[in-house]
Amino acid sequence: MEIFVVPTPAATGSVAAGILAAVVRSKPDAVLGLATGGSPLPVYRALAEHSVDMGVVRGFALDEYVGLPAGHPESYAEVVRREVTERLGLDPARVSVPDGGAPDPQQAAADYDAAISRAGGVDVQILGIGHNGHIAFNEPGSALDSRTRVENLADRTREANARYFTSLADVPTQCITQGLGTIMEARHLLLVVNGADKAGILAAALQGPVTTDCPASVLQRHPHVTVVADEAAASKLLPGSGGVNVRVADTAVGV
């Protein structure tokens, strides 16, 4: 595991985008795992500044709310369309999001998991981390080998996401999420983290015990993890602890 520490949130986007651009240049039909949320979104904005053809890239979103109407602006299908597909010039037919409006969400989740496998798996999975250690919507208690499934959202997760909705009552209570086992099958995991409020959970995830109490701690078991964090988020990491190589990076990394 390697972590790049950069001065600002904008720099995390630049460094992560450079890594992704290098992957796509070497493999134009790469399969990317797409995360939404406050930390990953600057990555796509920075990636749009690179002169790299994304036309045959495939994308699979990490998760989707259950029960939002089609076209809802805060559905992840719409966020991915606005922030990723259109911004980067991806072919919409090659970008998939779990079907949160399906009559049988459990079957939709199983079908989505199978679609990732049929695509040959994910080359680079972009990730953020929640305040309770969730990645995707794998809340504390999720099995470390879990597959794509319907998950109940924790109160803290709904409260954190309420800023995107009119009120907390409007935040869905369920989602379809890639499981931790599904995520761990990606060949490269790229975790982007910003802010002092994430410092404690980032340290727990990367240098604490591997436990279902902190789902992101499963990343310690993956053979190829890159973390890009701003100085505030990285402030509680201990250099050299837990096999983590912490080093300062500039925004040219991976370009």
List strands and helices in order, with pairings.
Layout: E1 2-6, H1 9-26, E2 31-34, H2 41-47, E3 58-61, E4 63-65, H3 76-88, E5 95-96, H4 105-118, E6 124-127, E7 149-152, H5 155-161, E8 174-177, H6 180-184, E9 188-193, H7 199-207, E10 225-230, E11 245-248
Parallel strand pairs: 1-10, 1-11, 2-3, 2-6, 3-5, 6-9, 9-10
Antiparallel strand pairs: 4-8, 7-8
Helix pairs in contact: 1-2, 2-3
Report on this structure:
The chain has 255 residues and is α/β, with parallel strands linked by helices. It has helices at 9-26, 41-47, 76-88, 105-118, 155-161, 180-184, 199-207, and strands spanning 2-6, 31-34, 58-61, 63-65, 95-96, 124-127, 149-152, 174-177, 188-193, 225-230, 245-248. It has an eight-stranded parallel β-sheet with strand order 5-3-2-6-9-10-1-11, covered by helices on one side. The chain has a three-stranded antiparallel β-sheet with strand order 4-8-7, covered by helices on one side. Strand 9, helix 7 and strand 10 form a beta-alpha-beta unit. Helix 1 (9-26) packs across helix 2 (41-47) and helix 2 (41-47) packs parallel to helix 3. It is globular, with a radius of gyration of 17 Å.
Describe the largest sheet: 8 strands, parallel
What is the rounded distance between the termini? 20 Å
- Per DSSP E runs of 2 or more residues, the count of β-strands stands at 11
Give the C-alpha Rg.
17 Å
Q: Summarize the amount of helix as a percent range.
A: 25-40%
Q: What is the count of DSSP helices, taking H or I runs of 4+ residues?
A: 7
| Overall geometric form | globular
- Return residue spans where pLDDT drops below 50 for at least 5 consecutive residues: 251-255
| H and E string | EHEHEEHEHEEHEHEHEE
